[in-house]
Structure formats: C-alpha cells, structure tokens
Design goal:
The structure holds two protein chains of two kinds. Chain A is α+β, with helices and mostly antiparallel strands. Helix content of chain A is 25%, strand content 20%. Chain B contains twelve helices and no strands.
C-alpha cells in the first residue's frame, strides 16, 4: 500500500525512463541506463546529454520504465537452469574449416 | 589599416559573447533543478566556451600582428598592457583573464544574472535565436576563420536553440506559477535584445568588406522566430520597450565586473598559474 508521503513524492517527480543507445550504424540498441524526464521528447534530449556526450551513440530509444516487464528473479532456477545441460543446442559439434575466421 | 582594427573588434565581440554566456550557464553546474538538466546546461556552457576559445585564438593572432602603436591604443587594461608593452605576444588566455570590464565587447544580454531557471532559459532563447541566424549568414563570410567557426558552431547552436525553446514552451504553457515567472523573465530581458541586431560603425565596416553580417536582415528573422516560440508558450511579446545598449562599445551593466572577479581571480592572484 502506498503511503501519503510516497504518493506526494511520486507526483512531484518526473517519471523514470530507460535509455537504449545504438553505438554505431548496424549495431543493436543497448541498454545504457535510466533518467528522469517529463515526457518522451525531454527524455531523448536528456539522454543525448547524459549518455552520448562522449560520442557513445548515433541513435537513441527511450521507453518509460513502467512499461518494461521483467522476468521474476525468484524464478530464475526454473527458467534458466534447465538450459545448462543441453549442450546439444549449441552448434559446437561441427568441424570448422580453417578459412572461416570469425565464428 | 582601419579594417584590421575593426576585424579584431568584431572578433572580440563574438568571442566575448560566447565566454560570458558560457560562464553564466556554467554557474548552474552543481545547482541544476534536476541531475539531467544540470548535465545538459553544463554541456551547453562548454560548447560556448569552446567557441570562445577558437575566436580568442584568432583575436590574439590578429592582435600580435598590429604595430606597437596600434597595440597600445587597443586595450586599456593595465595587466594586459604589461604583457605586450614588454614586446611579448598575447594568447587566448591573456584575452580572457587579463582584460577589465571596459575592454569586453559582449552584448549586455549575455551578462544578465541567471536569477532563476526562467531567466536563464529566456536569456538563452534570445541569444540562441540571434546566434543561429547570425552564424547562418557568417557561413558566407569572406573571412575563412569566421566561416569555419560558423560551420562548426551551427550544429551546436541548433541544439541550444531547440533546448531553450523547449523550456520556454514548457514553462510558459505550464502552470500558472511557471507562466508568471516565464513572462516576468521575458519582460525584464526584452530591453537587452535591441543591441543584438543594432548596426554600429564596426558592423558596417565589416559588412562592406564582405566579412561581417548584415544585422538588418537578421532582425526580422530573429523577431519572427522568438515571437513564434513565445506564442506557442502562450506568452506575450513586449512592445515599444526602450532598448538598452553599449555592451559592444565596452559600456557594461554592473554585473560584468562580478563575473570577471570570479572568472579571473585565479590568474590575477597567481599570474601564469597552470593546472
């Protein structure tokens, strides 16, 4: 349950946004961090100043943090551990010719 | 000969505008209303400082080519005179740190105090809009250094103008309180905007040589751009205000002395200090 003071705090603060930066053309956008902003446009502008000042990016995505849905850390055993012993799902049983360098 | 003096004068006007507004914005560093804006405004301050450096380097180079007689007449600041009367050449740091108020040629607008966020972004809007159109014209200057500085600065000022306009609109068209504060800033700063586009003899000489910008063509563009933003922000554009002036000739408001006291203290107290 949200207390009165928490409610007021939420009202006076700008919402939180998650920032994704593409470091150069052709690469994926990667999560860079988060920041506060009043709306999407301000979030992009703030992200430009906070996360791309040192030439880290050529493209920015922002999404309000409340729209990110995450898996439950308490369920990580049942979700991810079963993949541990399924080595046959990795393409590690092929003999690669020497000419193929970047695999 | 007169052309060289005017060119130096013109260069210093552009450089001083950049240094002083950059310093004003840097005063927010660590005091911004929110972390993200603290970084944004400090970032913008650094852009201004970078532009000031390029222009001061150019001004120092020009100054060092003058005759001793011309040099003696150009600056009245004693500390700077001490440097060049001994025959030494001056550099960008000497120009920033060793000149007193009357040797600065920035417009009065840029030295006005930050006061609050509304004043700060309003001063930026007025200056950024001017600079955007000014540098767009300066791209065509016959002076290669000016054209190069204009090209580099335009990308930065395009962003600055967007940033300041956004804030005017947000606050003007925000709550009753933010609207009131924004309108007060617009009203109080309006009288410093006339000087931006008022032509004096130096401006005319530079224009006639194809080096400077015709401020008469900038004025309506500036007016239209600013009024458009104020209108979107539901703010009223002041009319028939008497316009202040004098900064370009070295006649400043009381604020510049305080700025220089802070900006120049270290070099004045510990001459030649490096860190």
């Amino acid at each position: 349950m949200i207390t009165m003071s928490q409610e007021n705090k939420h009202k006076s603060e700008w919402p939180l946004w998650e920032v994704f930066i593409r470091s150069k053309a052709g690469l994926d956008h990667k999560h860079a961090g988060s920041l506060h902003a009043a709306d999407a446009q301000m979030a992009i502008e703030n992200a430009r100043d906070v996360y791309t000042r040192r030439m880290e990016g050529v493209s920015i995505w922002v999404v309000e943090s409340k729209y990110i849905h995450a898996s439950d850390p308490d369920e990580s055993e049942s979700l991810y551990d079963p993949a541990n012993d399924k080595v046959y799902r990795h393409p590690t049983f092929y003999n690669l010719p020497d000419e193929v360098k970047y695999m | 000969m007169a052309k060289q003096i005017d060119l130096l004068d013109y260069t210093l006007r552009l450089a001083d505008n950049e240094l002083i507004i950059g310093h004003r914005l840097s005063e927010w560093c660590g005091h911004g209303p929110i972390l993200e804006q603290d970084i944004a405004i400090t970032n913008i301050a650094l852009d201004h400082l970078g532009q000031a450096r390029s222009l001061y380097q150019y001004a120092a180079e020009q100054f060092n080519h003058l005759t001793q007689e011309e040099k003696n007449k150009f600056f009245a600041s004693a500390t700077l005179q001490n440097v060049f009367t001994s025959g030494a050449s001056i550099d960008e740091d000497d120009l920033a740190y060793l000149r007193d108020v009357w040797d600065f040629r920035n417009v009065l607008l840029v030295e006005q105090p930050n006061k609050d966020w509304a004043y700060t972004v309003c001063r930026s809007l007025f200056y950024d809009a001017f600079k955007f159109f000014f540098y767009t014209e300066l791209l065509k200057s016959k002076d290669e250094t000016f054209a190069a500085v204009a090209e580099k600065s335009l990308k930065e000022v395009t962003y600055h103008l967007r940033w300041s306009s956004e804030w005017i609109i947000r606050l003007g068209d925000g709550t009753d309180e933010s609207h009131e504060k924004m309108q007060a800033a617009v009203n109080d700063l309006w009288m410093y905007t006339g000087e931006l586009t008022a032509m004096d003899d130096t401006d005319k000489t530079m224009l006639s040589h194809g080096i400077g910008v015709d401020l008469a063509t900038i004025q309506p563009l500036w007016q239209e751009r600013v009024m458009e933003t104020l209108k979107e922000a539901t703010l009223t554009t002041p009319v028939n205000t008497w316009m202040q002036g004098g900064g370009k000739e070295g006649k400043h408001s009381e604020h510049l002395g305080y700025i220089l006291a802070e900006l120049q203290f270290m070099q004045r107290a510990y001459p030649g200090m490096d860190w």
